[in-house]
Design brief:
The protein has 193 residues and is mostly beta strands. It has one domain. It has 1 helix and 17 strands. The strands form 2 sheets. It has a 14-stranded antiparallel beta sheet, with helices on one face. Strands 9-11-12 form a 3-stranded mixed beta sheet, with no helix packed on it. Strand 3 and strand 4 form a beta hairpin. The two termini are 23 Å apart.
Length: 193
């Protein structure tokens, strides 16, 4: 599946599971994309904010992420880099538990669900594993998230993906636009711009 370039900016409203907002800006670079975003929310009575800068290659595979987060527990930063072959370092420390992950998935972000979809470019009916380096919103800790995506067209012609993250007990259908950005994540986020 081919995707058009993303818009210069996009925004999502967090719904149901948390209340908040995410704004993101896309900028092409010499050999990929730079994505800058900020997301804030209230979840289970706790507040947090996360600013991020992602470096992506031309296929939207993650190269690195620079994160700054704040919660009632204080301010934290994280620098996450990958070699493009599925090996990761967090703040300069090798993280073998993330071996094989190709994408970063920020708990705070609806945008990062675009990374595996754009990178995999699945055909109708195809399913693929997409393990990710999953970054928690409140404290920026990183863990492995095993997940999968399958392209499922419906009668309206919308791009829908059957998404599963068994470790989190999540199974749902995600809806995307023609640029591969998430439009609707049931119970979590909806695109507003």
């Amino acid at each position: 599946m081919d995707f058009r370039d993303p818009p210069k900016t996009a925004a999502w409203q967090h719904i149901k599971a948390r209340t908040g907002f995410e704004v993101v800006y896309f900028q092409p670079s010499a050999d990929g994309w730079r994505v800058n975003g900020c997301t804030t929310a209230v979840e289970d009575g706790r507040t947090w904010s996360v600013e991020y800068e992602l470096e992506l290659d031309a296929a939207w595979a993650t190269r690195g992420a620079h994160l700054a987060g704040r919660s009632a527990d204080g301010h934290r930063t994280a620098s996450i880099v990958t070699d493009g072959a599925g090996h990761w370092q967090i703040d300069g420390r090798v993280s073998p538990e993330l071996d094989g992950c190709r994408d970063i998935d920020l708990e705070s972000s609806a945008m990062t669900n675009a990374l595996p979809v754009r990178r995999l470019r699945l055909a109708d009916g195809d399913r693929a594993a997409a393990p990710a380096a999953y970054v928690r919103a409140a404290d920026l800790t990183v863990e492995r998230a095993d997940q999968s995506y399958a392209l499922v067209r419906d009668t309206s012609g919308a791009q829908r993906y059957a998404y599963a993250a068994p470790g989190f007990g999540v199974e749902c259908r995600l809806t995307y636009d023609g640029s591969g950005l998430l439009r609707d994540y049931p119970g979590l986020a909806i695109r507003v711009v």
